[in-house]
Design goal:
The protein is mainly beta. The chain has two helices and 15 strands. The protein has helices at about 5-20, 110-115; strands at about 30-40, 45-50, 55-60, 70-75, 80-85, 85-100, 100-105, 105-110, 130-135, 140-150, 155-165, 175-180, 190-200, 215-220, 225-230. The strands form two sheets. Strands 7, 8, 9, 10, 11, 12, 13, 14 and 15 form a nine-stranded mixed β-sheet that branches. It is globular and about 55 Å long.
């Protein structure tokens, strides 16, 4: 997954120095890779809010429609600045998505029933599941995000849902159920799962109830529970000024 807080910023600076140190002649070009949340457009600029802190602005049109992902950031040394609001601030960069994360929007228990996503045949347990950190209105998870026909290479999507029951929430715990439904065509004789990251949008929970300063995210996956602690401020997405 990814480091958090000051460790994330330290790793980011280390990667930048390592990248620049590989060049025999310093042409001023720099680069690093990081997970980020993307807001904006190609006219006013796509604002990439880095996990761990920092803001990178790009006008690359291929960022349209991307909300969360893992990106390669390329910029010139003179574009690197720091400020009191964002810490790292790069005003003009080329940004290339290495991995685009599917975003899961949680639904209530009642909505899940009407959508038929909580029934036994559509709410399975994945073979592998890892819960990541919460940051800027999302938390990440790692699991099988697609399934592939081992003979033809054809791919099929995996349906993923997060279900919440308002009556089971407390001031210090956000409790969610993860429902996993790999749609494997009957005609496939052999298949394998493709693993990657997805993000769950938790911004809608910011006003669900009064939260404690520190909140535990607990995700039920089958008969197991996975937990991660966040600040109540982590329910909030970045806002473009």
């Amino acid at each position: 997954m990814r480091p958090n807080g000051f460790s994330g910023i330290f790793l980011l600076l280390f990667c930048v120095l390592a990248f620049s140190g590989c060049r025999k002649e310093d042409d001023g070009l720099r680069g690093f890779m990081c997970e980020a949340t993307v807001l904006g457009d190609s006219v006013k600029g796509f604002h990439c809010y880095l996990d761990g802190g920092g803001l990178v602005i790009s006008h690359d049109r291929w960022l349209k429609g991307i909300e969360r992902g893992y990106f390669a950031f390329h910029y010139t040394e003179e574009d690197w600045q720091t400020d009191d609001v964002h810490g790292i601030h790069i005003a003009n960069a080329h940004v290339y998505p290495e991995a685009v994360y599917k975003v899961i929007r949680p639904v209530s228990r009642e909505e899940a029933g009407s959508l038929h996503v909580s029934a036994e045949d559509t709410c399975r347990t994945p073979d592998h599941f890892t819960l990541g950190y919460g940051w800027r209105g999302y938390f990440d998870l790692y699991t099988g995000v697609a399934v592939m026909n081992s003979e033809s290479g054809e791919k099929a999507s995996v349906q993923m849902n997060m279900i919440y029951d308002p009556d089971r929430q407390t001031a210090d715990t956000l409790l969610l159920q993860f429902c996993y439904h790999p749609r494997i065509p009957d005609a496939w004789n052999r298949h394998c799962f493709l693993y990657g990251s997805a993000s769950c949008d938790i911004s809608s929970f910011a006003s669900l109830r009064p939260w404690s300063d520190s909140v535990n995210i607990v995700v039920e996956v089958g008969d197991k529970r996975y937990g991660r602690k966040i600040s109540k401020e982590d329910f909030l997405k970045p806002e473009l000024k």
